[in-house]
Each structure stands twice: as structure tokens, then as C-alpha cells.
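Quick question: what would this complex look like in 3D?
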Amino acid sequence: MHADPKGVLTGVHFIDGDHAACEGALAAGCRFVAGYPITPSTEIVERFAHRIPKVGGVFIQMEDELAASIAIQGAVWGGQKVMNVTSGPGLSLMMEHLGYAFITETPCVWIDVQRCGPSTGMPTGPAQHDMMQVKWGSHGDFQIIALCPNSPQECFDFTIRAFNMAETWRVPVFLMMDEVVGHMTERVDIPEASEIEVVERKWTKKKPGEYKVYETTPEDPVPEMVKAGDGYRIHVTGLTHNEKGYPDMTVPNQERMLGRLIGKITQNAHKLVDVREDGVEGADVVVVSYGITSRVAMAAVEQARAKGAKVGSARLVIAWPFPAERMKEIARTAKVFVVPEMNMGQMVQEVERAVAGAAKVVSVPHAGGSVHEVDTILNAIMEAAR
Amino acid sequence: MAKTEIRVGGLGGQGVILCGSIIGKAAAIHGGKHATLIQAFGPEARGSACSAQVTVSDDVIGYPYVKNPDILVLMSQDAFNQFIPQLKPGGMVLYEAELVKPDGKLPEGVRAMGVPATRFAEELGRRLVLNIVMVGFFAGVTGLLPFEAVEKAVLDSVPRGTEELNLKALKKGYDFGREQAV
Amino acid sequence: MSLLMDQSAEELECGMDNPVLPFLRKDRIPHIWCPGCGIGTTVNSFCRALGDSGMDLDKIAIVSGIGCTGRTAGYLNLDSFHTTHGRAIPFATGLKLANPDLKVVVYSGDGDLTAIGGNHFMHAARRNMDIMVVCINNFTYGMTGGQVAPTTPLGPTQTTMPFGNFESSFNLPFLADACGAVYVARWTVYHVRQLAKAMKEGLQKKGFVFIEAMAPCPTLYSRRNRLGDGVDQVKYFKERSTIKNGVDTKDVGLTYQGDIVVGKFVDRDRPTWMDSMNDHFGKVLGDKYETYGAHHG
């Protein structure tokens, strides 16, 4: 289906990534946000608070991030599309509810505008410090999807994509922004509502009595949904549960439930991964990057090519699930992977794991607070190409 | 692949960010170019240092920050002192002539031009539009963007009801800039 | 005392007609609560309140946190949500605001609602969020094995207060009142009819409703402190309770096995969060604002 024109600010805008992400959410049909201010994500909820009264929906500023991250989930079961907006310290507080959203299959979008950590760190300093936290930070075993925009335009486009993926797979979907992308202003084109594809919630057509809240088929591991108030008398719990949603804390049921939940992503990873490649075929050196770093990396790649190096770029548009199979394929021809990131080396570990010794992997870390210098990445490429 | 890097500096309350935003908007929306604006985030108090970085390019912009600007647009002495050392050799400095005194601190080969933007703004009736005079001056001197593009960017950036005043301020700065550029 | 919950599985087999069964998920019985526990008794009162209220049960949702009382949601035949520890109130806030047609009831324990969830409790009352909060107060953390709670009075022994509790406790009605609740009542599991009536009133009241129900935890509170079993504790509730409707909530604090004040302490009206939002936006934005929730019933 198409976006509701009420939420779509069609036109050409000169806005920052935070504002663009908010417009993406509105275009995707998000009509409820429970927020808590934190730099550098605050502008997203500020814009939502300003826009939503005229679009039709609710914004409420909660008392803390624990409340925000569960209030949005209550709203999902009340029938709304929602997002959760924060940055590192807030994300740490929200971790229990990441697990809750996963086990209860509550579709929701989480926007993390990453800043320097650990702890309070540098609130206005950009970083890509939370890449592993979103993958592993909540206790227990779970899976998420994470998209990495590198411009305000992509903040708009990818937020819509994140909402669509959340409804399709019923897992938390992350938009891994950073302070630069969030606060950088560029041209953002917002199309007509009729040109925006929006995935509707997977509402059941079954009647009360026939419907089980977590019933699935071997062909489709994603259950159908209802909302509270429609007469289905559902039960939803964070305990290990059966098809009816009832607690069933037996080993076979834990295996069945978790197997399906994890499998939704792992068995469909090939449909989800998104690597944007440039000159990877025949390259000796391949630069793997994501988010704002991918733009700086591309500048370095072009300069390296001008110097005669055979270098390609593989940009992770989706970081989780990680495109391990594609990295393995690339490692058959490439000699060195160069992995610049605004952290001390996180996704590089995934590259190493995937490549498994078939090629050399070089980390180009950055503690955060600024992006890499083009020269830093260029030097790493030239060193690798020697 | 022409790329121009600009730093706009001044004090909070002078409309520094809006000045940078109008230049970026004129380029990206009305001028057929790519533009990236980054604003320096600090305590948002009036009177504190404030700056915007604008990159205008014919091509996609990779590295988003402006480290060594081609052009400085300066509205305070502090901003002048802070950013002059970053200016590219042979770069250009456009400054508010009554608030900034270059006093021989300019590196060799640099083109420096002042405009009495505050006075022009006051003559037009509102001191607040000094940033729009600066935008006009920038457009007039550099010729980087068509006047019409800048005009449109001003129109969709200023509050309703102030369009006429702001367009006058733009034209005033632009004409003054054209004269200086010759 | 009435411990219907304990009997219902047996009654099911006997084909007897239990008046609260229509409100329960029969396929979830037997429940997990200990013999003599008071939670089931409060659920009995709640079921009667549901019936007496005449409300459409499809439009009532129940939200619990974690703990013994937190399991209540799972036994009621309503849309029911068993959330995370302490976060039932913010979940309920989101549920209510997303679907204003619903009457949302939070049913949880004293530790869940007023220790880990204390901040949410205060703010939901301050905002006058339109939810009904039922707090089963058994003065201890039951599910984790009898640790000190913010409601444990001075004196009794708990596993983490092995030499007796020396921390002051909350006076819950006073807390709810001070934070802005529009309806505040306290009853005990001895007062099953009054409790059911309060719950019915609470279901029909608009705004933040708080009902405290004192209940025995024989396994971890009574026996540990040589107070006997559940029945002994209900006898204590019976003998030491005085009904004082409308009394100032600052005077209803509890002491260890001391006098108990029960009753309806607060019943007032003020605009709910959503009404305030609608009124305010209506005034400020005029015709551009479409009243939120108006399309819902």
C-alpha cells in the first residue's frame, strides 16, 4: 500500500538527518512516539512533537528511557506504528526492552544517533560505538536488523525501509545514525505519498477462537497480528511461550520458540543483506565501511585509484544481519580488506570471522569525536595495496 | 570537479547558521549543485561563538567537514581570529567591516573584502537582517551561485511577512559585492 | 476466607458453576500461587468487579509487571500483557494512548510498582493517565524468595534484612494522593466485597486510579516472622482494620502488625493527560487540530 498523504511532507527540503528521519517515520505511518531527550537524537522527537498534532497521533515525553522503550511497545499492541529514539546512554537503559520486543515480536523501529562513549563520553561527538551493542546488548539470544544511512536523504528513505522491515519480520529494526549524519544538513527529496511504498501490519483475517497469537506455518515464520480491544483476548508475555502466547517453560518449547524467532532472520539473511559495491571485482584491496564513514572512505578510494591502486568499496547498507557470505566470496579475489570505523574495531571482527584467513583484514579504528581523515584511510589502502 | 568550502563565523544571535543554511539551500535546491551544511554545536547562548561549515560541490560530497575553507564569511572579531589560520592559501575573506578589523593579520595572497552589513541593515530598518546582507555580499563577490537561486533560498528561509525587507537586504549586499568584485 | 482460585481446577472437573470462571482463562489453571496466598482472593474480587461493571470485556486490557502478582494478567480472560519488571505502567500508558477505546488496568505487586517501577507510578499519577492501578501489597518480594520491599514495615525479618528491617516504608495511598491520583482506596483480602466495589468504581472512573489491596504472603512473610499462615494474617486484617472513608492519606501509614486504616480516601476529578492534550491543542491550533481519539467510540 501507499503512504498516507497526511504524514508526507512532499517537496524538496534542506534539512538535517534527524529531521529527515522524523519525516521518514511520519511517511511510514508512525503515529506514536514516547520519547526521552538525549543529544544528538533530540531533534527527531522535537520535530515529531511539533508535527504530530496536525498529522493525527500522539507524542509523549516519558520520565526516562526505560519508560519510553516499553510505552512504544504498549502502543504497538494498541494498534499504532511506533519508533524509539535515543543515543548511547539511553540505549543502554533500553536494552531489556529490546529483548522484550524480540520475544514478543512487537514490530518497532529503534533509531540510535550514535555519539562517543563509553558512558557519557562526548555527547556531541560522532561515533559508531554501538554496532555491537545493538547486536548483543540485551541478555539472551536475539536477532535484529540494522540499517546504516550516510546522508539525510538516506535517513528519510531508510527510516521508511526500517518501518517496512519491522512490519514484515516483526523484529526490532535499528537505524544506526551518528552525530554527523544526524546533524548534517543536505538536500532531501520527499516524494508524493503515492510513490512511497508502506508495508501494513500483518493483521489476521481469522476470527476470535480460530486465531492464536504466535501461530505460524513452516512456509511463513512470521505470525499474524491483532490489537488489544478487537475481541481476541490475547496474552503476550516476555516468558518463553507457546503458540497461544501462554507461558510454556519447557526445554522443547524453548527450543521451538527461540529456533523460530532466531530463524526468522538467520534463515532469511540472504534476502535482507544489502551491500553497495563499487569496483570490487578485480580489486586487490576492498574497503568495507558503513554510515558516514562510507562517504569518507569513498573519497579515499577515489584518491587511491587515481594513484593506480586496484581498490574497491563495499558499503554495508545493512550491517545486521552481516553479509558474511558475500565477504567470503569477495575474499576469493581480494587480497586485503580495509575496515575503517568510528570505533576501536567492531564490525571488523565480523569481517575477520567471515573471511576466516582467506584474505588479510586491516582495521582502521577511530576513537570517535570526528570522522576519519581521508588521508588516514588512503594511507591504509596504499599500505595494503603494496 | 569544482568544490568550494566555506566557513561562516560570528556570534549567536547574528544569524550565522541561517546565513550558512541559505548558501547551502541556494546551491542544493535552487542552484543544481550538491551542498552539505554542518553547524558547530555549543552552548546555545546568545553572544557565544557560533559557526557553520558549508561545502558546495558539482559532485557528491564525501568528507563532510570544512577544515581549510576557500572562503570565510566573518561577522565577529573572535571568529576572524579563530578561523583566519585555517584559510586556504589564496583564499577569500568576506567580513563585516564594522565588527571585524583585519589589521594586517591577513596572510599574503588572501583577498579580503569588508561590507558594513550592520549599518546597511539598520538603514533598512532592522539590524537583524545583517546576515542576509552578508549572504548578498557573498553572492555578489563570489558569483558562486546565481542571484535567483539565492533569492529563492532567502524567500523560503525567512519568516512570513519579512520577505520584502530580507530581499532588500539581500540586494543591498549583492550590489555592494558586485561593485567590490570588479 | 475465600480462596476460590485454589478450588477452581477441582470445580472444573466437577462441572460446578463458579461465578468467576467466565473471567478466567480456564486452560491456564492451576495457577502458581501458594496455599494461603492472598493474590487469588483479590482476583476473585476483580472478576466480580468486571461482572458488576457491565463493561464490554473486549475493551478491557490488563497489564502486569513481574512477580507473583505479575502473573495475574496471564490468568484473566482479557487482552492481557505480562511485561517487564517495573514497567507495567509505561506499557499501559502506550496501550491506552494508542487505543483510547480501551480501559487499561495495571495489576501488579508492591515491589514491582513502587520500587523498580516507582518513578513510572509517580509520573503516571502526575499526568493523570487514564489507567487503573491495582497494587497487591504483601510487604515482600515473593517470587525471588522474601526480600525487603519498599512496603516492608520496620521490624520484620526478610532475607536481605536478616536482622529485621530498619528501612522506612512507603505509605502508598499518601504517595498516590500526593502525586495526583483521582481515586485512592485501600482494602485488605478480608474486605472482599469492599475491594470488589472499589475495583468496580475504579473501572468506571476516568483518570489515574490507585487501589491498594493488602494480602498475606504466608510462605515468605508470615511464616518467616512467626505470624502463622494465611488465615492468621487475614484474622489480623479483620481485627485491626478500621474503615475511615475520606480520611487524610498522610494518616494511613502502616506499622508492623499495627492498626490498619482502610477505605476510599480520595475521589476527585481532574482532566486526564489525553483530555488535557486535546483541550490544549484545540485551543492553540484551532481548526488545524483534529481531536485525538475522537474516532475511537
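Answer marked as accepted. The first strand of chain A starts at residue 11 and ends at 16.
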